[in-house]
Design goal:
Layout lengths: L31 E2 L6 E12 L2 E8 L8 E2 L7 E7 L12 H4 L2 H8 L26 E6 L1 E5 L4 E7 L5 H6 L7 E8 L11 E7 L3 H13 L6 E8 L8 H7 L5 E7 L5 H4 L7 H4 L7 E2 L5 H12 L6 E6 L2 H13 L5 E3 L1
Parallel strand pairs: 1-4, 10-11, 10-14, 11-12, 12-13, 14-15
Antiparallel strand pairs: 2-3, 2-9, 3-8, 5-6, 5-9, 7-8
This protein binds flavin-adenine dinucleotide.
The site of flavin-adenine dinucleotide has 23 residues, from strand 6, strand 8 and helix 3.
GO molecular function, one term: oxidoreductase activity
InterPro entries: CBR-like (IPR001834), Cbr1-like_FAD-bd_dom (IPR008333), FAD-bd_FR_type (IPR017927), FNR_nucleotide-bd (IPR039261), OxRdtase_FAD/NAD-bd (IPR001433), Riboflavin_synthase-like_b-brl (IPR017938)
Family: Belongs to the flavoprotein pyridine nucleotide cytochrome reductase family.
Length: 343
């Protein structure tokens, strides 16, 4: 995701720079949020494969929710921080610890990661440590929950594992029962019901998370009549995230989506055949998945329709790599759209 807070050094400082600014999100008076900006313990419940290099992790709040006012609340589009003790970080060339042996799925991934190709790779930045009064005990990274179960005190995150990544080296050691520490919430996106008539969102890969949670919460609000369009870009069919979830959201009158695949992977493509039915044969009835890149002309066409209702009534949401969001922004600027938010 492109908007990493430039002030966060990722060290999991006790006096975290992120906590200087209070959250803009308010809670109903009868609700207490478990996420109160201090690290809380969550147990890893399960890890399931979601796509190439992406796994869905479920975490459960360890002190069972005793106070019935307590809830896990992460406003749509916002994220949490996961921290791990540096001293406990798993080194891939070291003998795996027990918990890692317990998770053959992540162990298998570690040996066979899908090598990134063509897509922009995360750039390494070294930031000065914020809290210099303490040693660098922790490593921390932001992740965006996509689902909650209040009754069981769980949340789900989609995590793309990065070969060689520091937090990835910790995540691959997790298995059911592993203890983790999370705090939140962070993020400044605020949604007001019916503020816009249309929202058109463009996302790429795992960056679908904040947009999905935003669109989902708008659709869950029966009083919100905003018309939503999602354009999600992935490398290939195996890389498509939340495929079943998007298909079920399509049942809402005010939601439409399209998925664009940047690579054709069938034998016809390898043989240079320009068009074939291989993808269509793998899709479900009426599934809007296209084996072509999202082109500028198509972005313009998608935005023209809601623009007919007037510029102020349209909000564009973006989430993806720097090059992806810049590509979409060039059309947004060309059409002089004022309301554009990049997660
Ligand atoms: C607001 C926000 C929300 C996010 N939400 C999610 C989410 O929901 N899901 C998700 O999967 N991610 C999310 N991310 C990204 C996530 O926080 C991490 O950046 C990601 O998981 C990689 O962390 P890491 O420690 O494993 O990799 P890092 O150690 O940070 O490395 C990142 C990449 O750089 C490469 N690298 C490492 N060292 C070097 C080096 N010396 N030279 C060159 N390359 C190197 C690694 O191989 C890796 O590919 C979010 C980011 C932000 C800013």
């Amino acid at each position: 995701m492109s908007q990493e807070d430039p002030t966060c050094c990722g060290s999991g400082c006790t006096n975290c720079v992120l906590d200087v600014k209070p959250s803009k999100h308010t809670l109903p008076p009868d609700v207490v949020n478990v996420f109160d900006r201090t690290y809380k313990q969550f147990r890893c419940e399960c890890v399931t494969p979601a796509a190439d290099n992406v796994f869905r992790f479920r975490f459960c709040y360890v002190p069972a929710i005793g106070d019935e006012r307590e809830q896990l609340i992460v406003p749509p589009g916002c994220h949490l921080m996961l921290r791990a003790l540096r001293s406990a970080l798993h080194q891939p060339d070291r003998k795996p610890d027990r918990s890692a042996e317990d998770n053959p799925l992540l162990r298998w991934w570690e040996a066979n990661p899908v090598q990134p190709g063509g897509e922009e790779h995360a750039k390494q930045k070294t930031l000065e440590k914020h809290d210099k009064s303490e040693d660098d005990l922790y490593l921390s990274r932001p992740y965006t929950p996509i689902a909650f179960d209040q009754e069981h005190g769980t949340f789900d995150v989609l995590i793309k594992l990065e070969p060689g990544g520091q937090m990835t080296n910790h995540l691959v050691t997790l298995s059911a029962g592993s203890r983790t520490e999370w705090k939140g919430v962070y993020g400044d996106f605020l949604w007001t019901r019916n503020r816009y008539r249309h929202v058109v969102a463009f996302v790429q890969g795992v960056a679908i998370a904040p947009v999905y949670s935003t669109l989902r919460s708008i659709l869950d609000d029966e009083g919100d009549e905003t018309r939503l369009t999602l354009c999600a870009c992935f490398r290939n069919l195996a890389g498509v995230l939340l495929r079943d979830e998007l298909r079920s959201l399509a049942g809402y009158w005010n939601f439409a989506y399209a998925i664009y695949l940047s690579r054709r992977t069938c034998a016809c493509a390898a043989a240079g055949v320009e068009r074939c039915n291989c993808l269509a044969a793998r899709l479900r009835y009426n599934e809007p998945i296209h084996d072509r890149r999202l082109a500028a002309a198509e972005i313009e066409r998608l935005l023209q329709r809601p623009l007919a209702d007037g510029k102020p009534s349209l909000l564009v949401l973006l989430c993806g790599t720097e090059s992806f969001t810049s590509f979409i922004k060039s059309t947004v600027e060309k059409l002089e759209i004022e309301n554009c938010y990049t997660f």
